[in-house]
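Exercise: predict the fold of this chain.
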Amino acid sequence: MITIASLFSGEDNLFCNILDHKFQIRQNKRMYHPSSDHIATAWIFKQWVNFNETAPHLIRKFCKDMMIRPIRIQILNRKYKVYKQIIIELLVCTH
């Protein structure tokens, strides 16, 4: 839920050249979920996080293959961390 909220809290699209490469972007999303763009994009983000933590040398290739704008996914990652911290702090304050 935090991932999806983070994804759609900004105005810019995560993917590059969406008008020129619409079909390819759809195909990339379908690898992660056959019918939901939201869930697919969340899984793509999770995969990026995995590469970021375990194999950062693969991030550039992953972004290129998935047609992701690298700066946008880095911003998304920062948003995700902020939202996650806010939720943790809210949970701590309510207990």
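Check your answer against the key: The longest helix spans residues 70-94.
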